[in-house]
Structure formats: structure tokens, C-alpha cells
Specification:
Blueprint: H1 4-13, H2 27-30, H3 38-44, H4 47-59, H5 65-81, E1 86-90, E2 103-104, E3 106-108, E4 114-116, H6 120-124, E5 125-126, E6 146-150, E7 157-159, E8 162-171, H7 180-198, E9 208-222, H8 223-227, H9 230-235, H10 260-275, E10 280-285, E11 291-296, E12 299-300, H11 301-321, E13 324-327, E14 341-349, H12 362-381, H13 383-389, E15 411-412, H14 415-427, H15 435-446, H16 448-453, E16 464-466, E17 471-473, H17 483-509, H18 514-528, H19 541-550, H20 558-561, H21 568-576, H22 582-636, H23 639-678, H24 683-709, H25 722-725
Parallel strand pairs: 1-8, 15-16
Antiparallel strand pairs: 1-2, 3-4, 5-6, 6-8, 7-8, 9-11, 9-12, 9-13, 9-14, 10-11, 14-17, 16-17
Helix pairs in contact: 4-5, 7-17, 10-11, 12-15, 12-17, 12-18, 14-15, 14-18, 17-18, 22-23, 22-24, 23-24
The structure holds adenosine-5'-diphosphate and magnesium ion.
The site of magnesium ion has 3 residues, from loops.
């Protein structure tokens, strides 16, 4: 019987690129046509209802029930015309995916007929049972109800013939059970804090939004190969597999000509994304073979997060019709690069100004420096929390692995801006500044835009890099919901800006002129946050040493990193800003630990399963052939000839026996460690045991399995190999 692997390989040979369903029209002619956005609302809503929804979007003013009825009815008419028969509240529970439960628009009416209906109350709030999502103990059975509530700031859309309404998801007691609720609160906190600070510079600023442009990396694999790799199917990564002779050494994949099948897939999912108003614009091959990236134009952060979550779902679905599977895992393959999701973040005002983009005058540049320095100070104060916000079992494979930023948090500013901060530090005195000093300083900062124009400084090894007009948080994992890190960033910068305003106001109160007060506080922050600034190579061993001397933490594993979730400073931060209560934050900590444990537990079970039922049997079958051959030779050859002829085979026979025996022993040890870990009390202890006791067994098992792969007859090897999976044309 031919192995499943060989059947899969034959299937792959016959694959033709599936051409996308997209039409040839210009993108602008269909962009956003499946979104109940500005134009659709303008067309379908009364003037009053339209004005009220816009007010809700722009100023968070609640929508009256009467108007909600109108909006619902218009949405239904619009969605039905697009073929939608069902609607769903679409939300982001803490398991990292998106959740949907479809309900039909129709209702049975008299005499066996049905009518279509969708009311304001159905739009505004639902009470799905949804009791199986992680809640970290927030939902006890007696209060098990969970509610979803409409988020009008992210427009409804039609996907797969279903009207999807973005919502938050909270418990009966109002506690957040999702990613969106705290994100929206952090957006509000940052808006208030940043708008207040903007008043020093421009009275016309009444609103500040956070902006996010994510860059999504992913791998593609043929579906037939994916289907016979249970590890990929169930965990998203290959737990076993020898490195191919040719991986990414030649650097010939990065930005190379896009393989035809991948290009067809890209055109297809981009078309679907454009219908949904997801502004994906950039596509290219990434560093590893069969690895790619797409990036949109940046948007308001809440919308950008929804779009990223939706895009991951769209990609997954579209891949299937191309006989491909998309791998969003942070590390599908050992030995080649993993995938991240750079989060480009900034703040923009209602007056159209990017607060992290220097202006043309000293005044606008003082504003730029204010937001720039405050962000760095915020990162300095909450570096450990930022690290925790991107911690996951998957991402542990990347951080610190010399392909992704280290687990040590630091900020890269570039040479010119570093120099400007150093200059401020030197030239601003704590005493009153002379007019000459002030002029010199202003002249200096007046030059910033020119400097930045040719500031092509790029440091790929920094987890948090300033790139001209935004910060790029590079350590985020490719499968992550961006909400976690973005909520954190919004919150820490909001807290910092509130503090800044307090300190500047105190100086102004002492009759120090405003600009000088600002300079003095900025100087103080520059001095205080120095240790977080690092311009060198983040991959180097020296940095690890230096970081340690500076007192920066290097949390290599998720269980270690997660402690910062429940530190006093974190709990206070989220509580003071009304983003998450202690109980909500502690629940998130529990969930993160439990998720970690479960992931490692699943991986461990799959390794055991594959090794015992696929790897060892293949190895033994091959060994039997060798044994038969050797004993056959013994009957026909002279003793001297036999010795010569059989030596090599006997070595292989022995090698197989030794490796199989080590593998079996290690699998048994791993199972024992799992049992011990499962008996421990508390999520923290369990996560540590899985990390420190169970996971190390993976490496030993893998080492010997990968060696066996190199000696066993290729035709007998059960699993698709790296050289096959990483090849896509
Ligand atoms: P890279 O060289 O890292 O690919 P790009 O300039 O192409 O950098 O931008 C990457 C991402 O940054 C894009 O998604 C882009 O929309 C986003 N971006 C640009 N400006 C901003 C901003 N002000 N706020 C947030 N994201 C931004
Ligand atoms: Mg980037």
C-alpha cells in the first residue's frame, strides 16, 4: 500500500493554479461594496438616523432605540439585496478567534408563511448563551449570561451571505469577556489624554485617534500535504521534520517573483478583502520559502483590528478553494524564519495631523517631541507589560531567536532623533533659560523635518522602532489579535500623557512659561527613560549582557512574561484609566496561562501520537528490510565477503534501534511529566511545569526523529518532508 504521504504528493503534482473569482474592474469601483459604511448609510438611512449614527461614531453618543429600529431595518434591506439571509453579532472572545452565531432574518407568520424582520433591539444587543468561551472565572454558572452589544464605530458588513455586526462581548455583570471592550476603552482614554496635551499647541484639536497599520506574515502550503500532517492540522506547526538542504540560506525567496499559485490566492483574497473595505495594498514574498506578507493602508485602530481579524478568516477560507492552506502560526517550521505581525502605531488629530510626524515649524515640532518622548517614557515605565501583551506559546519560538526581535523590550529612535534628545538633555537647564538658549533650542528642533526626510535608519532587530512618522511594534505574533498589544500601548501612553500634563501645569502655575515648562519636563523624561533606548544589534549576545546591566528584563518564556499582567503597576494602570478592573485583568492572566498550558499539552499529545503510530513503525519496517537483507546475505556469502557487505547495514540497523529506544523512553518521560503537571494546583504552577518539564522533551524526541528521517527509505517515511512542504510554485 502506498503511504498517505505519497498519495498526497501525487495529488500536489496535479495541482493547477485556480484563477481567482475577482473581476477585472478597477478596485475603486467595488471597494467597500459589502460594507454598510458611510455611502450605504447615507443612501439607506433617513437624515436624522444618519446624523445620529455619525454622532455615535464620532462622539460616542448613544443611539436612541427608535433610531436603532430604523438603522436595523435599513441594514436588513441593504444586506438582503446582497443576498444575505442571516445576521450575526460578530465578536472577539478571549480564545483569539472571532465568534459568530447566525440567525435567520425570517420569522414564521400566519398560515404557514414567513416574513423577514430585523429590529433595533436585535441589532443593539443580544444575549447569546456563549458560555463556553474562556472567562477566567468571571462567569460562574449562576450568572452565566453573556451579552453582545453593537459597536457602531466599526461598520457592519456582509460576508458569506450573512450580515455581520461587530460587537463587544461582556458578562451579565458588565465585565469584559473579549478583546474589543478594553480596546475601545483604551482608545477613549488616549483620546482624552492626548487631546488635553494637544491644547498646549493647537486649540482646534478636539479629538485624537490611535492609528494602526499591521503587516501580516503567513505561510502557504498545499492542502494535500497539510492534510497528512496531523501536527500542522492540530497545532499549526510542524513538531517534527529535518531541515531541508536548501532553506532560506540563498535569500532567493525574499521579494522574489511571486509563485503563480500564491499570486492567484493573493488576488482572490485581496478581492474579497476589498469588497469588505479592508485596505490591503502591499504583497510580497517573505524571507522563508513559501512565506509571504500583506499589508494594508493604516486605519483607526479599532477598525484596523477588526479588519485584521476578518482578513485572517478570509484568507483561511479563500485558501481552501485554491487547494492551499494558510499558516498563520508564528513558527510553522523550525530552521527557517517564523511569522510576525508588525503593528505600526501612531496618533492622529481631528485636524488631520499625525502627532508622531514632525511639522515645519518649531511649534509643531515641539508637539511632535512631546508625543515622541512621552511614548518612549511610557515604554520605559511599562516595558514588562508590553512584553506580556505579546506573550504566547507560539510567539515564544520567535522572540529572541535571531529572526525576530528579542524578548528584551527597548526602543530604537535612529541616530538623528537620538542626537536631538541628547541635545535637549544637555541644553535645557533646570533654572530659567536665557532667551538665547531658548532660541538656540527652537532653531535646533526647527530642523527636525529636514533631518527625518533622509533618515533612512532602519533597525530590524528592535522590538519597538521609530520609523519616521510612527512606532513599529515588531514583536507581535502573526496569529495574535492586535487588540492586546494595542490596548496596552494606548493605555500606557494615555497614562503618561496625563502625568505629563500634570507636571507641566504645575510648572506653569509657578509662572514658568509654557514652552519652557514643556522642555523641562521632556528633559526630565529623556533622562529618566534612557535605559530603554537602544540603537545597536538586538540579536547580539552583547545586548543581552548590556540589557541585564541596565536592569531590563529578558523574559524568554510566556509563563515568566505573564507575571507583568498582574503586577501592581499594571493593575493600577488599567484601573485608573477605567480600562480593566483588577478582576478583569486577573481573569485575563488566568486565561493566558491556561491557554499556554493547553497548547503545550496538545502539542505533547500529538508528538507522542505521531511518534508512536507513524515514525517508529516506518523506522521498524525499514529496519526489517535491512535485517532480512543481512540474514539473506549471510546464507549466500563467505564469512569475509559477508562482513564487508553487511557492516554498513548493520550500523544502520543498530542506529535505528538506538534512536527508537531513546525516543520511546523520552515519550514515556514526557507523559510522566504531563501527569505530574496536571496534578499541580493553580494555573501558574501548571504553566511553568509544562514550560520547564514537558516542553524540553520535545527537543530530545525531535532530534532523534529528524535523524531517523535522514536514514529511513524515503518511500517509507510517513510524513511530508520540509523540502516538500516548503516548495510552492
Ligand atoms: P515597512 O517598510 O515597514 O513595510 P511602510 O512604510 O510600508 O513600512 O508601512 C508599513 C505599514 O505602516 C503600512 O501598513 C502603513 O499603512 C503603516 N503606517 C504608515 N503610516 C502610519 C501611521 N501614521 N499610523 C499607523 N500606521 C502607519
Ligand atoms: Mg515593517
Amino acid at each position: 500500500m502506498e503511504s498517505r504521504r505519497f498519495l498526497a504528493l501525487q495529488e500536489v503534482l496535479h495541482r493547477q493554479p485556480v484563477e481567482p473569482s475577482s473581476s477585472e474592474k478597477t478596485i475603486s469601483s467595488y471597494y467597500g461594496s459589502d460594507v454598510f459604511g458611510y455611502d450605504a448609510m447615507k443612501e439607506h438611512l433617513s437624515e436624522e438616523a444618519f446624523a445620529m449614527v455619525m454622532n455615535a461614531i464620532e462622539n460616542s453618543v448613544p443611539i436612541e432605540r427608535k433610531v436603532a429600529d430604523q438603522v436595523a431595518s435599513a441594514m436588513k434591506a441593504w444586506a438582503s439585496a446582497k443576498g444575505a439571509t442571516h445576521y450575526t453579532h460578530w465578536f472577539q472572545p478571549l480564545n483569539g478567534t472571532t465568534a459568530e452565531k447566525h440567525d435567520g432574518f425570517f420569522e414564521p407568520s400566519e398560515r404557514g408563511r414567513a416574513i423577514e424582520r430585523f429590529s433595533g433591539s436585535q441589532l443593539v444587543q443580544q444575549e447569546p448563551d456563549a458560555s463556553s468561551f474562556p472567562s477566567g472565572g468571571i462567569r460562574n454558572t449562576f450568572e452565566a449570561r453573556g451579552y453582545t452589544a453593537w459597536d457602531p464605530t466599526s461598520p457592519a458588513f456582509v460576508f458569506d451571505k450573512t450580515l455581520c455586526i461587530p460587537t463587544i462581548f461582556v458578562s451579565y455583570t458588565g465585565e469584559a469577556l473579549d478583546f474589543k471592550t478594553p480596546l475601545l476603552k483604551s482608545i477613549h482614554a488616549l483620546d482624552k489624554a492626548a487631546t488635553d496635551v494637544c491644547q498646549y499647541f493647537d486649540k482646534n484639536v478636539t479629538k485624537v485617534i490611535a492609528t494602526l497599520g499591521w503587516e501580516q506574515e503567513y505561510f502557504l502550503i498545499d492542502a494535500a500535504l497539510f492534510n497528512v500532517r496531523y501536527d500542522l492540522q492540530q497545532t499549526g506547526r510542524t513538531l517534527l521534520g529535518a531541515s531541508p538542504a536548501k532553506g532560506q540560506q540563498l535569500e532567493d525567496h525574499y521579494w522574489g517573483s511571486i509563485p503563480a499559485r500564491a499570486a492567484a490566492f493573493m488576488r482572490d483574497f485581496e478581492y474579497q478583502s476589498h469588497l469588505l473595505g479592508i485596505p490591503v495594498r502591499t504583497r510580497h514574498n517573505e524571507v522563508a520559502p513559501a512565506q509571504f506578507e500583506c499589508a494594508p493602508v493604516f486605519e483607526e485602530v479599532n477598525l484596523a483590528v477588526d479588519h485584521n481579524q476578518l482578513l485572517m478568516d478570509v484568507m483561511d477560507k479563500v485558501a481552501i478553494r485554491h487547494n492551499l492552506r494558510v499558516l498563520l502560526h508564528e513558527k510553522p517550521y523550525a530552521g527557517v524564519n517564523g511569522s510576525g505581525k508588525h503593528n505600526n502605531w501612531s496618533m492622529a488629530t481631528n485636524t488631520g495631523k499625525n502627532l508622531l510626524s514632525p511639522g515645519k515649524t518649531p511649534k509643531t515640532n515641539l508637539q511632535f517631541l512631546t508625543f515622541f518622548v512621552n511614548t518612549i517614557k511610557a515604554v520605559h515605565e511599562h516595558a514588562d507589560l508590553l512584553r506580556a501583551s505579546i506573550a504566547s506559546a507560539n510567539n515564544d519560538h520567535r522572540l529572541g531567536a535571531n529572526e525576530a526581535p528579542p524578548a528584551i523590550m527597548s526602543a530604537f529612535l535612529g541616530e538623528q532623533l537620538s542626537k536631538i534628545l541628547d541635545d535637549i538633555e544637555k541644553s535645557v537647564s533646570d533654572k530659567k533659560m536665557t532667551p538665547e538658549e531658548k532660541t538656540a533650542l527652537k532653531m535646533g528642533i526647527g530642523k527636525i523635518p529636514d533631518i527625518l526626510l533622509d533618515n533612512t535608519d532602519r533597525n530590524r532587530t528592535s522590538p519597538f522602532a521609530f520609523t519616521g512618522n510612527k512606532f513599529e511594534f515588531r514583536a507581535v505574533g502573526s496569529s495574535a489579535n492586535c487588540s492586546g498589544p494595542m490596548t496596552t500601548l494606548n493605555a500606557i501612553v494615555a497614562e503618561q500623557l496625563i502625568q505629563f500634563k500634570k507636571e507641566v501645569d504645575a510648572l506653569i502655575h509657578k509662572n514658568i512659561e509654557k514652552d519652557e515648562a514643556i522642555f523641562q519636563i521632556l528633559k526630565k523624561y529623556i533622562v529618566a527613560s534612557k535605559k530603554i533606548r537602544f540603537e545597536g544589534n538586538g540579536y547580539g549576545e552583547e545586548w543581552k549582557k548590556e540589557a541585564k546591566q541596565r536592569g531590563l528584563n529578558n523574559f524568554n518564556t510566556t509563563p515568566q512574561a505573564l507575571d507583568a499582567f498582574v503586577s501592581k503597576t499594571t493593575l493600577k494602570l488599567f484601573e485608573d484609566l477605567h480600562i480593566l478592573s483588577h478582576r478583569e485583568q486577573e481573569a485575563r492572566y488566568e486565561i493566558a496561562l491556561e491557554t499556554y498550558t493547553k497548547k503545550i499539552q496538545i502539542e505533547s499529545r500529538i508528538i507522542g501520537d505521531i511518534v508512536m503510530t507513524q515514525i517508529i513503525p516506518s523506522a521498524i519496517k525499514y529496519q526489517k528490510i535491512l535485517v532480512d537483507n543481512v540474514s539473506g546475505m549471510k546464507t549466500i556469502l563467505s564469512t569475509t565477503d559477508f562482513k564487508k557487505a553487511s557492516d554498513v547495514q548493520i550500523d544502520t540497523i543498530k542506529e535505528i534501534s538506538e534512536r527508537v529506544s531513546i525516543i520511546k523512553t523520552e515519550v514515556e518521560k514526557m507523559i510522566e511529566e504531563r501527569k505530574k503537571a496536571n496534578n499541580l494546583e493553580g494555573a501558574k504552577k501548571q504553566a511553568h511545569a509544562y514550560c520547564e518539564k514537558v516542553k524540553p522533551c520535545f527537543e530530545v524526541i525531535r532530534y532523534h526523529v529528524d535523524k531517523l528521517e535522514l536514514v529511513v527509505d524515503d518511500a517509507m517515511w510517513a510524513l511530508p518532508k520540509y523540502r516538500e512542504m516548503l516548495y510552492l510554485k
